[in-house]
Amino acid sequence: MSTPSIAPPGARTLAILAIPALVIGVVSALILWLLNQISGLLADQIWTAWPDALGLEPYTPWWTFGVLTLTGAAVGLVVWLMPGHAGPDSATTELSAPPLPLRVLPGLALAVTISLAGGVSLGPENPIIAINTAVAVTAVARFATAVPTPLVALLASAATIGALFGTPVAAALVFTGIVAALKSGGSLWDRLFLPVAAAGAGALTMHVLGTPPMAFTVAPFGTPEAIDLATGTLVAVVSAVLGILAVYAFPLIHRAFHALRNPVIFTTLGGAVLGVLAIIGGPLTMFKGLEQAGQIINNPGDYSPGTLALFTVIKLVALLIAAAAGFRGGRVFPAVFIGVALGLFFHSVIPSMPIGLAIACGVLGIVLVVTRDGWIALFLGIALTGDTTLLPILCVIVLPTWLLVTGVPELRILPKEPVAVAEST
Questions:
Q1: Given a cut of 50, is residue 425 above it in pLDDT?
Q2: What proportions of the chain, in percent to the nearest 5, are helix, strand and coil?
């Protein structure tokens, strides 16, 4: 994430700026909630109502293949024809990016809504942060010109992250490194005050709107033992290695799709490949992955080690295809599913390994690769299990895992690599 130059304000200014920060938090959450509602209603029609009207079972293979292929074609048309081409290719973006022009937002919102409803293996995080940032920057530039634009962008990003994960802690952890890098005076908490306020407002708004918390129920970890450190490190390292393999495959897959030049062609092809993967892996390997991760966490005994291994591989490939083929979306939530499936695989083959530790370490390893942020990887490991007793051992396990990851390229196509997009006429 880029580091803006923002001087920390004094206490009186913080109190005044807290008002727009809270407003940005609430509005950002409302936009996220609206996007989720629309995509959820559309998904219900596509995957339940329409098949039922045709007398089909949900996720019938030919229906699954057809829907994902058509989803790719629809997103490709949006990218090709809409003003601004639905924003930058999500394969090239980080969680936070410079504000987009307002004219780009309708296409971006439409592309991500179609992708989420159609079952594409990407989350909403990158596009919704971009949308909320652009809206906040434009609104504040009109109604509160004294608030610096970099601060507004920072607040919108923090608010959206708080809303996405249901807690301001996620945003505080993500932005700790950013605000600590600012060359300005003041304490760290002076700099975090406004982002935490925005994130807190975003998270609270999502709770008021009825969004359930991220944590799922698993058996308590209990007292750590030496063997837990060994098995936990093994799971985290294997998870990170899978992520590293994905990092090196990603530019090759991206280049292959974009060699076709027109987004209608390569995104339709990507949708067809996703359709084949969905037929092989089943519906649990579709969509953004968070709800599906909850399903396998809540019913771990329903899946054999072979099935869990299949889930892991199919979801990893689906993430690479979706991210490389021009769909708009984020990579964090699909990575969470991959980590959960891998962790449950290890728990199934090493039954003595605590299930919470297995899940947390599986998530930690691959999220560390995807986000390059140890704090968010630790947070997600704890948040999914709801077990804070895991924190001490995870803080140790993350260290060797970070050493493995730190010299590896990002799971992102650097902007200097040209991406051909056919212009509409």
A1: no
A2: 75, 0, 25
